[in-house]
From TrEMBL:
A monovalent cation. GO terms for cellular component: cytosol; mitochondrial inner membrane; mitochondrial matrix. Its main location: cytoplasm. Catalyzes conversion of folates to polyglutamate derivatives allowing concentration of folate compounds in the cell and the intracellular retention of these cofactors, which are important substrates for most of the folate-dependent enzymes that are involved in one-carbon transfer reactions involved in purine, pyrimidine and amino acid synthesis. This is Folylpolyglutamate synthase. InterPro entries: Folylpolyglutamate_synth, Folylpolyglutamate_synth_CS, Folylpolyglutamate_synth_euk, Mur-like_cat_sf, Mur_ligase_C_dom_sf. Keywords: ATP-binding, Cytoplasm, Ligase, Magnesium, Membrane, Metal-binding, Mitochondrion, Mitochondrion inner membrane, Nucleotide-binding, One-carbon metabolism, Phosphoprotein, Transit peptide. Pathway: Cofactor biosynthesis; tetrahydrofolylpolyglutamate biosynthesis.
């Protein structure tokens, strides 16, 4: 790591390697302070969030679980103790009529569809999800809306003080970690607000996730499986399926979408072990047969699988709770995979149709059209989800042809994911520019507690962005051939690893830049042409690099600029914070 840091510091001294605006704030104090800021009038919500942040970020929670996974069952027992200290017993959670959903891809979208369908029936819904995009209160929703800052503050301090009062001096951990605390808080909010049901999205995995203290959900769901969090869940699809199947409960119906044979067999075995009836969802086409096509509020062909799962979850919940209007059954068909019985084929009701149509889930296959700029936002961060993102993006471009256009990729990747593999999948989009930046809205996040991350330094996140740029450059070199590209010498502007510049014209050049924060990246990409984007005055030397300068001219003159933001939901959240100021209110 010391060699990597030396390389980073050396690269930062080469000002021509990328705009000096990129490195603003790198030198000096490099750690993000975790100490709560002094209380100011009207800042009670921010005080609550700052205190929450001291309980560790999700990244820290991941590392903690990795160290202690020799006895993961102990983590669930610890969660039950925290629940008891907060004043609740596991039995109390039965009142929430929970729909518990896990999966690798699409579990959040599935939850969003499910919640909106059931809200269309006039039910009062709770919805717990992660991560948040702009404000942490997005994770706990009532009737589709994040709880208000006032409610978040009230429930946060009520739970925090209760846990403080009940801490045991003999215990080394008096407070639950960040995600655990929010899970506990969601349970309290939903019970106090007397919701009719709660849709609970699993955080990571399933078997040992802290949401899995729920003992009697009404129904469970497993969305599409893929490779993610492999250091924690296992390095094969079968191992990951074992973790996901850990949410199955005796006698509680569960539904899944088509999966590869190996993982599907594991899910079936997990269900059989606990006498859980597991069903395979028929495709959405089967439910549309002989009826008008269903309209989905979320774009992308892959959302049809999520919608099909959501319809089954919602219908099963309504059926088990003796609600009317669950949809007329059609003739059921045997499962084509012969591993699981097929879930009912039925005609979606009007509330189901309205719910699917009206579903909103920001940051997932989301488009924002702003004059000549179109922003495509998708938090895809696994190989399979990036493939789906690429299909959606290319299909959207086909519908929006006309005039000279520029395509820009804004990318970041975190955790144990393979950025080279993700970037390779993005190559078919033929970007003119690739832009890399950390998941920091501004270089300093002191005034924005919702997006603070205490577990990394600016050096570390910038080094990762430089590595992403290197991966991209190598991919472009391989695609273009060795004779088409040359890199500037150190005397001319820095090592080849930092910026690859085209020597000869190329139909889709591989020019790339690294910026120190999202704000600087958006300033360069938008060139003042987004009527909503309001950012501070850019550093005077933001265009000091030749690629940044020439690219600015291209971006200003283009008839259309298409910007795909992907690789990280946290990156998408930071972009949304700047593109849609109303989300911060």
């Amino acid at each position: 790591m010391s060699r990597a840091r030396s390389r980073l510091r050396a690269s930062l001294r080469l000002a021509a390697a990328f705009p000096r605006g990129v490195t603003t704030g790198v030198t000096g104090a490099r750690e993000f302070s975790a100490r709560p800021a002094p209380q100011e009038p009207g800042m009670e919500y921010q005080d609550a969030v700052r205190t929450l942040n001291t309980l560790q970020t999700n990244a820290s929670y991941l590392e903690q679980v990795k160290r202690q996974r020799g006895d993961p069952q102990a983590q669930l027992e610890a969660m039950k103790l925290f629940l008891a200290r907060s004043g609740l017993q596991v039995e109390d959670l039965d009142q929430l009529n929970i729909i518990h959903v896990t999966g690798t891809k699409g579990k959040g979208s599935t939850c969003a569809f499910t919640e909106r369908i059931l809200r269309s029936y006039g039910l009062k819904t709770g919805f717990f999800s992660s991560p948040h995009l702009v404000q942490v209160r997005e994770r706990i929703r009532i009737n589709g809306q994040p709880i208000s800052p006032e409610h978040f503050t009230k429930y946060f301090w009520r739970l925090y003080h209760r846990l403080e009062e009940t801490k045991d001096s003999s215990s080394c951990v008096s407070m639950p970690a960040y995600f655990r605390f929010l899970t506990l808080m969601a349970f309290h909010v939903f019970l106090q607000e007397k919701v009719d049901l709660a849709v609970m999205e699993v955080g990571i995995g399933g078997a040992y996730d802290c949401t899995n203290i729920v003992r009697k959900p009404v129904v469970c769901g497993v969305s599409a499986l893929g490779m993610d969090h492999t250091s924690l869940l296992g390095d094969t699809m079968e191992k990951i399926a074992w973790q996901k199947g850990g949410i199955f409960k005796r006698g509680v119906p569960a539904f899944t979408v088509p999966q590869p044979d190996g993982p599907l067999a594991v899910l079936r075995e997990r269900a059989e072990q606990v006498s859980c009836p597991l069903y395979l969802c028929p495709p959405l086409d089967a439910l549309e047969d002989g009826a008008p096509p269903l309209t989905l509020g979320l774009e992308g062909e892959h959302q049809r699988s999520n919608a099909a799962l959501a319809l089954q979850l919602a219908r099963c919940w309504l059926q088990r709770k003796d609600r009317h209007g669950i949809g007329e059954l059609r003739v059921s068909r045997p499962s084509l995979l012969c591993q699981l019985p097929l879930a009912p084929v039925f005609q979606p009701t009007a509330p189901m149709r309205h719910g699917l149509r009206d579903t909103e889930w920001p940051g997932r296959t989301q488009m924002l059209c702003r004059g000549p700029l179109t922003w495509y936002l998708d938090g895809a961060h696994t190989c399979s989800s990036v493939q789906a993102c690429v299909r959606w993006f290319r299909q959207a471009l086909q519908r929006r042809k006309g005039g000279p256009e520029v395509r820009v990729l804004l990318f970041n990747s975190t955790g144990d994911r393979d950025p080279a593999a993700l970037l390779k999948l993005l190559q078919p989009c033929q970007f003119d520019y690739a832009v890399f930046c950390p998941n920091l809205t501004e270089v300093s996040s002191v005034g924005n507690a919702d997006q603070q991350n205490f577990m990394v330094t600016l050096d570390q996140v910038l080094l990762r962005c430089l590595e992403h740029q290197q991966h991209w450059s190598r991919l472009q070199e391989a695609a273009a051939g060795p004779d088409l590209w040359s890199a500037p010498s150190p005397e001319a502007g820095g090592p080849a690893s930092l910026l690859l510049a085209p020597r000869l014209p190329h139909p889709r050049g591989a020019s790339s830049l690294v910026f120190s924060c999202i704000s600087h990246a958006l300033q360069w990409i938008s060139q003042g042409r987004d009527p909503v984007l309001q950012t501070p005055s850019p550093p005077r030397d933001l265009l000091s690099h030749p690629v940044a300068s020439s690219g600015a001219s291209v971006l200003r003159e283009a008839a259309a600029v298409h910007v795909l933001v992907t690789g990280s939901l946290h990156l998408v959240g930071g972009v949304l914070k700047l593109l849609d100021p109303s989300l911060s209110q």
